[in-house]
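During the no-cost extension, the postdoctoral fellow (Dr. R.K.) reprocessed legacy sequence entries with the updated structure-token encoder. One reprocessed record is reproduced below for audit purposes.
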Amino acid sequence: MRTLKHQPLLEKFSNVKWEAGCDEAGRGCLAGPVFAAAVILPDQASEDLMNLLDDSKKTGIALRNKLRRMIEQEAVAFAVSMVSPEEIDRINILNASILAMHRALEDLSLKPGFIVVDGNRFKPFGDVPHQCIIKGDGKYLSVAAASILAKTWRDEHMLELHAEFPAYHWDQNKGYPTAAHLKALETEGPCKYHRLSYGPVRQLKLSF
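Re-encoded structure tokens follow.
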């Protein structure tokens, strides 16, 4: 038996068939889209997935990428979606995060019977019941799976944007406000992928 490095996560919150877990990635970034994923896992996930799956913030890059492959192979259904920086500036990051989750849910190949959301804010998705769980990505398998997909897909996207704008070091910081990113903002100014409504970017934009 594999030795667990963390407390095993719960399989489901409800007893409803096709329970979907939802989570987002990139809320605190100064640049790039916010991503969200929706995942429906089988009633009996593999032992390896159950043993390894955890909140994406508690896993290293290699394990996250391994888990992404496992989730995409084992999930009954999964979808990943994003909301652009322009949309974030227009509707704010909370609404953008919820919109990204709704888009992912809409893209699932089957309609969920229940939705479990990481965090404490959500808007109803049609007539599907839902439950918000604070730190749900460290408690329920499907929410942890959604956190892994949202994080890995977003990181991959930020590497593509880095190739276009290498000065901001997005290959390292993925758009978060690190010292290197902030320094590059001061010298280069914001680019088209920055969130202009965010304080550090908005202040610099006025000076360029």
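The radius of gyration is 18 Å. The chain has a mean pLDDT of 93. The remaining legacy entries will be reprocessed before the final report is submitted.
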